[in-house]
Amino acid sequence: MSGQAAVDLANPMYYNNRELSWLNFNKRVLEESSDLNNPLLERMKFLAIFSSNMDEFFMVRVAGLKDQVKAGFNKPENKAGLTPKQQLNRISIKAHELVSVQNRVLIEEILPSLEQEGFYLKKPEDMTKDQLLFLKDYFDNEVFPVLTPMAIDAYRPFPMLLNKSLNLVVMLENDEPDAEMDRVAIVQVPGVLDRAIEVPSEKNNTFVLLEDVLEYFIDRVFQGYTVKNVNTFRITRNADMEIHEEGARDLLLEIEKELKKRKWGAAVRLEIKSQDMDQHVLDYLLEELEIHYKDVYEIDGPIDLTFLFPFTKKLSTLREGLTYETFIPQLPEDLASREDIFEKTLQQDVLFYHPYESFMPVVDFISQAADDPSVLAIKMTLYRVSGDSPIIESLTRAAEKGKQVTVLVELKARFDEENNVQWAKELEKAGCHVIYGMHNLKTHSKITLVVRKRAGQIERFVHLGTGNYNDATAKLYTDHGLITSKKEFGVDATNFFNYLSGYMNKPKYNHLVVAPFDIQDAFIKLIDEEIDIHKKHGNGRIIAKMNSLTDKRLIMKLYEASNAGVQIDCIIRGICCMRPGIPGVSENIRVISIVGRFLEHSRIYYFHHNGERKIYLSSADMMTRNMIKRVEILFPIVDDSLKDRLIDFLHLQMSDNAKARYQDNEGNYHYVAHEQEDLYIDSQLESLNAAYRIREDEE
């Protein structure tokens, strides 16, 4: 770069907009539904994941941008330089394109493939006489009793419809000759009933959707009126919660109050059936919902494909071979001989790699601590847990046995608030000390401290992880964890919990790096050191694996490292605001995204450091919110053998040419090419097979 004009690394041209980058990620999810290497029902499931992702995107991200526009905020965001209105316009164009692809994949690819397997999704109009009689009985006995038709007139205004609920708008005319003008009514499709109804069939498995049955028999709901037309629609509402912690005497009550509001936020999206809806009816809905035509999404097929989650589960019970081959998580490599986890940890650090290695040893670690008379205290953070969590059960049992149990429950974990409020109440009732974190910060750290006393000596065991203490998602998300008995980690964990629960100055840690701010500063320092080392030795190397990268300060520092010649590989599943491969800016940076059977969730940061090999795991992505708005933990791996395993894992992921896509210098993603079938590398499949091989070797 010597002799050249300095490059402005803050130039908006060098950055991807966060929201558009997220849509690119969900496009990669959608692509999996067309990948013939995935079993048929798994392809269907990716359509459901895409649909669920879009729901959350509109409820939170689009809703937030709309709030900014309503408030008159028109300043550009600080990376790609787009105003809220510009972002909404580009989101609308991209989202409509993706929804069109989703419709096409379902109608032209998935449903025909299902029919080849003997599964048919039909309309009532296509049923035989006997099948229609079955549907009529089903409607009269199962559907009609739970319907609540809502008339709209001077005395009964347009109803406040639930977020994400499926509804029918019905236009009626009175059969009386002197009747008033046409009437309008809304009928909500009952969410308590299965969307896909199986209809008796001798030759195949035939299903019909609940809303189609309701539409077919709708005249039975409005006797004395003629149904002129009926249309299916669905609205998505603003579901982002505004928690006013200033002056909130009880955060628990504040959360519960906001949860009630979530169902009734302002409408941000309207989904309708393609070509079915009368223009006057559409105009009426737009006026009542107070949204623009660009917020309308026409669906050529069923609205809301999240129903495919239970539908694929049902179909998998009727036909084998249409899902991923069942896989059983194996014992972790460090516990392959089934040693006692506490005794093993006294000898060495124990590394976990879920879901290939079972999460149950972590569950057992807490359960065993609850029952061990020598254990004095258990302290842990909870961000998201499963609906029937064995970890919660162990904590309550420990408290009932008189142990000191402290649990930080993050009440502001988005869309898990209600679940966490309930767990907080249950833990308090059992005698646990429950705390809710720090003012205006989300506690996203994953840490457990177990303190026990044996032979007059205090022993501390610390679990640190990249993922939640959730035994359900641990079967679907890839994460790493560590259990250590090293004294300095135990001291750090003690100080961390005391800092969260009491009054004390911010501790000085031996190993842990804790956000807000410190993790960002640590990354800056590590990158600067790598730049300096590269200038001396020419072997600068950084590999960073995370879910998302948005923090501008860190991106600019990575650009600086690239310009200094440091080779940088980033494995980023989701949002990436950094653009690789720009001459003079990021030509030494490569970015790939892996979307496959498991959701890549682990955060690993590797700095070569002239062979010293500094490796960190973290609960934090390189996102501004994680750096300055959350309590996060970055922790080092100190054992060389564990470093070797993590570096091998990173290299495996970088060699993926089955599920990996690379980002070009304009922010677009493309499949990584593979020229020969025998060089086809699926990193997730390789990790799964490796877990089995380790187990077989032990046996």
UniProtKB/TrEMBL annotation:
Its EC number is 2.7.4.1. Its cofactor is Mg(2+). Residues 340-505, 512-677 form the Polyphosphate kinase C-terminal domain. An intermediate of this reaction is the autophosphorylated ppk in which a phosphate is covalently linked to a histidine residue through a N-P bond. Residues 133-310 form the Polyphosphate kinase middle domain. The active site is at residue 444. Keywords: ATP-binding, Kinase, Magnesium, Metal-binding, Nucleotide-binding, Phosphoprotein, Transferase. The keyword Metal-binding applies. GO terms for cellular component: polyphosphate kinase complex. ATP binds at residues 53, 477, 573, 601. Residues 15-120 form the Polyphosphate kinase N-terminal domain. Coiled coil: none annotated. GO terms for biological process: polyphosphate biosynthetic process. InterPro entries: PP_kinase (IPR003414), PP_kinase_C_1 (IPR041108), PP_kinase_middle (IPR024953), PP_kinase_middle_dom_sf (IPR036830), PPK_C_dom2 (IPR025200), PPK_N_dom (IPR025198), PPK_N_dom_sf (IPR036832). It comes from the Bacteria. It holds the Pfam family PP_kinase_N. It catalyses: [phosphate](n) + ATP = [phosphate](n+1) + ADP. One of its GO terms (molecular function) is polyphosphate kinase activity. Mg(2+) binds at residues 384, 414. Catalyzes the reversible transfer of the terminal phosphate of ATP to form a long-chain polyphosphate (polyP). Belongs to the polyphosphate kinase 1 (PPK1) family. This is Polyphosphate kinase. It comes from Domibacillus enclensis. The gene is ppk.
